[in-house]
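Audit log entry. Action: structure prediction of a protein-small molecule complex. Ligand: zinc ion. The ligand was supplied as SMILES and no pocket hint was given, so placement is left entirely to the predictor. Protonation state taken as written. Sequence taken verbatim from the request; no trimming, no tag removal. Recorded inputs:
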Amino acid sequence: MTMFRHSTSWINDALSGLQSLVFPSSCIMCAQTDQVICERCNAQWISPPRFINFVDVPTTSVVPYSSEVSSVVLKAKEDGNRVARRLIAQALYEAVDFISIRKKNQPFVLVPIPSSREAIRQRGESFLHPILKNVNEIAAVHGSNWEWKEVLIHKKRVRDQAGLNSRERSQNLQGVFAVREGVAEERPIILIDDVITTGSTLKNAILAFNERKMTVLGAATACASAHQFLIR
Ligand SMILES: [Zn+2]
C-alpha cells in the first residue's frame, strides 16, 4: 500500500508539473481537486480485491463499476491517458496478486484479452499492452517478475458490445477467440481484462485455452459491476 501511495505521488508530481503548464489540472476521475488523481479516487483503485460471481475460474476484481470509473477506462482507451492507465494497472496488480497467493505462488503467465482488430488498427496496439507494462513495473517494485504474452487472437469480427443484452453479447462472442498457432506455453494462464460485465468474454477465452489443453488458473479484472462482487 505504501508503495502505491508513493508511486502515485510521484505521478502526481511529474504530471501536475507538466500539465499545469498547459491545462489547469484536476482529478481525472472526479474533476474536483487540483491533483491529477485525488486521494479519494485513487483509493478505489488500490482497495483489496474480491472474488467475482463468475464460476468458470477464480476471478478477481477491485473497483465497482460506476460512471466515474468508466470515464477513467475510456480515458485510458481513447486518449491513452497515462494516469488512467496507471490506475487500471494498480487494480490489476492487486487482482493478479490475490489469485497468485490463492494458488500458492505457482508460476503463471499473464494473457490479456485482445482488443478488436479494428481497435488495434486504429491505435497501433492493444489497449492493455501499455497497462501490462505498468503492471510489470508495479510487480517489480514488489519483487515479482511477471511475464505477459499476447497469445489470443480474434477468429471473427465482433460487433460492438455496447447496447447488446447479455444473450446477444454471449452469441456475439461465441467462438471468437483462438490461441495463436505455434504457441507452446507450459505455464498456467491468468487472464487479464479491464472490465468484467457478463463474463462472456472470459468464458470464450477460457474455451479457446481448453481446446488447446492449456490451463487457466484464474482471471484478474480491474473493474466489475457492483452486483458481481461476492461478499466474502
Ligand atoms: Zn478525484
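Audit: result stored. Strands lie at 50-51, 59-61, 63-64, 109-112, 152-154, 177-179, 189-196, 216-224. Residues 141 and 191 are 22 Å apart (CA to CA).
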